[in-house]
Amino acid sequence: MCGISGVLGFGGAPASPAIVRAMTAALSHRGPDGEGHYVNGPIGLGHRRLAILDPSPAGRQPMSTESGSVWITYNGEIYNFRELRAILEGRGHRFRSNSDTEVILRAYEEWGIECIHQFNGMFAFALWDRGRGRLWLVRDRLGIKPLFYALLSDRLLFASEIKALLCDRTFERRVDPIALHHYLSLNYVPAPLTLLKGVRQVLPGHYLAIDEGGRVEEHEYWDLRFEEDGDRGDAFYLEAFEALLRDAVHAHLVSDVPLGAFLSGGLDSSGLVSFMSELLGGPVKTFSVGFSSRSYSELGFARRVASACGTEHHERELAPDISRILPTVVRHAEEPTADASMVGVYYLAQLAREQVKLVLSGDGADEILAGYETYLAPEVIRWYRKLPRWVRRGVLGPLVRVLPESGRKMSVGFRLRRFVRWAELDPERAHAAWRISFDEAEKRRLYGSELAEAAQGLDTFDLYGPVFAKTNAGHPLNRLLYADTRFYLPNDMLVKMDRMGMAHGLEVRVPYLDHRVVELAARIPPRLKIGPGHTRKYLLKQVLRSRVPEEILRRRKEGFLPPVALWLDRHWEFVADTIGSSRIMKAGLFRAEAVRELLERRSGTIGWGLQVWGLLSLAIWSDLYLD
After folding, report:
1. Would you call 2 a catalytic residue per the annotation?
2. How does residue 85 score in pLDDT terms, banded at 50, 70 and 90?
3. pLDDT tens digit sequence for 330-352
4. Which of 151, 208, 380, 546 is the most exposed place for a label (fewest CB within 10 A)?
5. Contact 69, 40 (CB under 8 A)
6. Model-level pTM?
7. Is residue 54 located within the same domain as residue 18?
């Protein structure tokens, strides 16, 4: 993986070499192995290199065809590049390197922009076709790799990270109030929005075509489609999924440098490590971190998997000082996040980078195979609503509200309170609500007059309506999975892995999100995703039954949640001072007394911790990124 950046001038405006160089330098952490630039007339391309495939000088970027008519700067990996190269050589193309970058160039020469349908990988690239006067900005199907852009009056800026765009000093750093409104509920900013007004993301499965006149066309080239008409039986799907997952892991092992794996001790990463051990024929380097608070640590499970698979295991227990590490994490994340597990992933990537340049990670399995508890909710809601209304409202509601809610990881009180709170909603609307921090009423109590006016009429839940309307899925479970692949997966989970990995120059690959695996999962009947006894990821558990320890198959999914309330309590002076003195507070977007009331509540519960962590991240972000 690498970092890309560039400028396209409109109406004859030339690209500034100084800006291209500054943008590229801002991405040095993404590519510590080299830097390259190409500036000619309206176009300027920059590249920071993390050499994984063909680390020789022949693989340097930006790269061009022999004639110089087509140029590319590219971030990612094309896992089937060798197969594509053989096809292209058969059609008369000659190669100067062993890199996948050159395969993209030759594929474009052969098939035009439709070449993207041939690629199996994670990628974000900019391709300049001088003859057509057109710039293509392309992002992979699932949004594994990031790509941001900003349209100014006479030019377009683009980059792997927002901080590179800000090297153009004419760019005004102002908060986008609509994005802020949605962030406070979702805990992340939904693409194509960002928290900076004027900065946008290329959506997953999309590309932009931009010409020198400043015209921008957006095209969707891939969308997840479900097949629900046929059922070929358990054996067929089990065999097909196991074979394809093995092939995907094998494809993701292509590398010219040492590699390893993140190992949490959960089902998904354990399964990957078992396949890696088989395919590599030797000990896999595995990496785990845990938290000093016992109820939040999974190190014991990771050790048992490492022992069963014979890995070379490395682990670290964390007790971070958030006053020191959180500003660094937010700076690399570039947007605030209420997902505090990003701190753990930062340290995990740091640990892995001491040994390897790339790792495989189990992200994505939950969203394609139904791993979250929330996927059971529609069925539970159906039974819950059979109870008389007076029982639900007059007995269970008050009872759940008085249950103690501790700061322990996903306490029963927290989960039941969330369920009863949202169970009266439509199941699809309820699905959007399970993970929120602030509901609409809570947000509006915080807002100052300017933000209240900007957010008038907005409801974050309404973002989900067009997504549910777009999918061809009819089964309720598949509809929820589709929504999560469009929202939670690319905007939270994959952001976390990309930014925290790249903070240390570590490439993170996600075999469960090989698009072939994702498309096969969309054809698997829902009864094999949630199986007998409401078993989540039932099919994956059957595939891995002979590969991972039984206790890993049986254990309840925990997730990589840190002890947020404990961290906040230990560093309370930092928390209160940072929020109170931040630029976002000084801008008057929030009512100081409402924020103060929230902080003084200091309940130590999970829900309160998520809200305060989200505000703390926002405060730090505003000090780093706003004018």
Report:
1. yes
2. very high
3. 999 999 988 999 999 999 999 99
4. 546
5. no
6. 0.95
7. yes
